[in-house]
Amino acid sequence: MNRQDDPIAMKYLEGSRLDGKALIVLGGSSGKDWEDIKKKINPDVILGANGVCFEVKDLDLHLVTENLHMAAGRAAKGDARCKRIMEIISPANTARVKLISYLNWQGVPIVDSRVQAIKIRRVGELGANYEMQMKSFSLREYGEGLLAGPIFDHPGALTSTKIQFRIGTVATQLLHVAGVLGVREVHSIGMDFCDYGHWYKYPKYQPDRFRTDSMFTVHNGLRTQFDWIQGAKWLKSLQWLFERDGLEWIDHSGGLLKTEGLWCAKQTINDER
Q1: How far apart are CA 4 and CA 89, in angstroms?
Q2: What is the pLDDT of residues 202-260, one digit of tens each?
Q3: Residue 15 has pLDDT above 50, yes or no
Q4: 63 within domain boundaries
């Protein structure tokens, strides 16, 4: 079957940072300290997603997961939130390589040249059997697509009964990208999975036309979302994958990963979180 993503281009990334260190920077509140972690670990490659590109200049790899088709239409009508989202694919994004879903590829202006962008997809995005795909899954290979979790189902949590999404976030997909690169260690910050805002100017997670009040809750003393809770639990169930594939994950975020007891959040490098 013809694929709409570009597995050949992703193949070139495999093992390109063999035995190195990767730093993933995301939008959770702890992300503001990313430069401190960078100085401590001296990463060979820095990865980010969505609005992180506005604050962390010259990312090595940047993952774009926003719905750009929807945002483009709303931005054209003057929606301030969507205008900000569309800036992700403007020249303001100086990441060396952009990983962009094939679903966002057609009809969207991809900065100056598509030479710097690779079409990707997520595992399960095409409705394929997720459980079967996971049997042959490896963190070291792009394979059928980037790691995404099973379908999340929480009654009343979505704005439309027609919408379904997977509990895997950009965090899990970037962990997979780090594995594909062949690094020995992957460090993460801004992966708090709690609170509703970001550490930088970017649209907040809050009840709006995209989310309902019932999507938000308090869990183990943290203000969070139900899908984030399930996402953290799912990641905990996959800890064996990291050990099997020889990828050491150290999280400096705290938050939900810590309260759920993931081993990655228990490791430190002279870090007080």
Answers
A1: 20
A2: 767 776 666 777 788 899 999 998 888 989 999 999 999 999 999 999 999 989 999 99
A3: yes
A4: yes
Does any domain span residue 1? no
Does the CA dihedral 22-63-176-155 come out positive or negative? positive
Adjacent-strand bridge partners of 48: 25, 62
Number of independent structural domains in the chain: 1
Q: Are strands 61-64 and 97-101 parallel, antiparallel or unpaired?
A: parallel
User: Where is average pLDDT lowest: 58-62, 196-200, 268-272?
Assistant: 268-272
Residue range 25-39, pLDDT digits in tens: 999 999 999 999 999
Q: Is the pLDDT of residue 273 over 60?
A: no
Give the range of the structural domain holding residue 66, as residue numbers without chain letter: 7-265
Task: Give the number of other Cβ atoms within 10 Å of residue 101's Cβ.
Answer: 21
Q: For residues 68 and 89, give the distance between their C-alpha atoms in angstroms, rounded to a whole number.
A: 9
Q: Are strands 165-166 and 151-152 parallel, antiparallel or unpaired?
A: antiparallel
Residue 272: inside a domain: no
Using the CB atoms, write b or e for 161-191: b if 16+ within 10 Å: eeeeebbbbbbbbbbbbbbbbbbebbbbbbb
Query: Among 2, 4, 210, 172, which Cα is nearest to 100's?
Result: 4
The answer to whether 220 and 262 are in contact (CB under 8 A) is no
From the number of C-beta atoms within 10 Å of its C-beta (0-12, 13-18, 19+), residue 226 rates as middle
pLDDT tens per residue across span 110-119: 544 444 889 9
Which of 256, 152, 158 is closest to 207 using CA atoms? 158
Residue 87 lies in a domain: yes
